[in-house]
Structures are given as C-alpha cells and as structure tokens.
Amino acid sequence: MTDDSAPSADIAHMDLPSWVRESYSNDDVYLFDEAPSVISVYEDPFLLEKFTFLVHVPAEILHSQERLRRFLGRARAHFGSELPFLLRLEADHKAPAGDGVRCNERFVEMPTVSVRASVDGLPADVHVEQLHADNTKDFVNLLLHGLEFSASSKGVPFRTDAVEANLRSNVIPAYEADQAHALLAKRGHEVIGFVSWVDTGETVELIDIWAYERDELRRLVSPLLYLAVAHSAAATVRGSIVGSDDNATAVFQRLLAQGWRLHESYWRLEL
C-alpha cells in the first residue's frame, strides 16, 4: 500500500531478501517520507496472536525514535488497525531503543555437520519413539505446556482452549501427513519431552524442543537435536529462542558461545 504523497514502489526492485519479494506484493509496500516499507498482517500459528507485521522498515526510520513514532502512527491510521506491531530484523540490524521494545523471538542457525560433531547421548534410562496415534495425546499435552511457557515468556495471555483446538485441527494433521516430524522422549512409559521439526531439504527448521522439567530439558536438548538432523541432507539447522526474560537472554548467549549464529529476530513495538 502506498500513501498519497509518494510515487508507487515496486517490491521486485527493492533491496529485500528474496523470500520477502516472493511472499509479498506491491499491495504490501507502504511509503513513508519516500522510504518504502513492507507491512502485512501476521498470526502466530500456535498462540493465535495477531500483529501488524513490519516485514521491512528502513534503518533510518528505526533508529530515530521521533521518526519511528510518526511512522507507527501513520501506519496505524493508514491500515486502520489496532493490532500490536511486530518488527522483523535481519541479523545485522539492531533493534530500536526504547522502553516499549521487547524481543519476541530470535532465530539462530548452525551447520548440521557441526551439530552431528558435538552430540551428547541420551540419558541411559531414556528412549525415543516416533509420534503415532497412541501417543498423540501426550504430544499435545507437552505442546500445550511448552506454549504456555512461551506465552509467559512473551508476556501475552494464553488461551488454553483455543490453542488446543488449533493444535488438534491445524497442527497435528501436518504430522499425520508427514509434513512435520516429531520424536517423543520417554522414561519407561512416561513421555518426558520431545523434538519436532520440518525438513525443507535445505534447512531443518526446529519447531520446538521441550520437556516438562528444565533440568531434564538441558539433558535432552543435544541428543534430541542430533536425532532431528541425523538423517537429513539439509546443510543448516535453525531454531528459535522465545521471549526476552533473563532465561531467554542466557540461552541465546550460550548458543552464540557454542557456535550458533543469529539469523533474524522479531520485536514487539509498543511506542
């Protein structure tokens, strides 16, 4: 979309990642002070929270609080939306300053060959099994537990009934159709954790690694991650750290120290 004071912009010729040019159209281009941005609407596929999604905003706007406030105000009026803003940043771009800026999620990546070279084995009393009809209920319960933690880390309400209904109608069918994959970690007959992922052929996209107990999660992360990439031809594995609390920050810094690198990040703007 464009404002009335600036010429139209062609997204095909904007300096954007190829996936942005392929996923969005000229209708998503918004001009502010003659600087083109890409703005859309995004719904979190798990927590079902909707955002005005700032796919691309020029750095000169982001790093001037006065210009950023004017930009957000004009964008809100232009789109007629009261949805919260979610800003996507490339790895080499810094988030705007301000008390109303909170990290929503950081995506990190590492070559799969590095993951395979630094694996820890499963605890001796733990085994894994594929997701199947008989353990789907356990998987959903674990997903709900993890998503409630994710909502808390993001500082947003958790709508248990709506999230569970969405999992059963829209998420689980992807696993049943083999479009996504999951392994459940068990101690005896008890399911204690899981790893889930999508393999695009180029990248293993981790959906989640989770366990009921934090100490248990620390022991399971490395071996479950290894199992997710063990038989993949993908060159890269990518995962995310949710939230901006002290625990999320510590996990992010620990992953960087282990050789993971930032791919992109998403920030809530409440300026």
Give the total of domains: 2
**What is the SS-derived class?**
alpha+beta
CATH class of the largest domain: Alpha Beta
The percentage helix is 25-40%
Helices, strands, pairings?
Blueprint: H1 18-23, E1 29-32, E2 35-43, E3 50-56, H2 59-62, H3 65-79, E4 85-90, E5 101-111, H4 112-117, E6 127-130, H5 136-154, H6 160-176, E7 181-187, E8 190-199, E9 203-211, H7 214-229, E10 236-242, H8 246-257, E11 261-269
Parallel strand pairs: 3-4, 9-10
Antiparallel strand pairs: 1-2, 2-3, 4-11, 5-10, 5-11, 6-7, 7-8, 8-9
Helix pairs in contact: 5-6
Description of the molecule:
This protein is of the alpha+beta class and 271 residues long. The protein is built from 8 helices and 11 strands. Strands 1-2-3-4-11-5-10-9-8-7-6 form an 11-stranded mixed sheet, sandwiched between helices. A hairpin with a 3-residue loop joins β8 (190-199) and β9. The model is unreliable at 1-7 (pLDDT under 50).
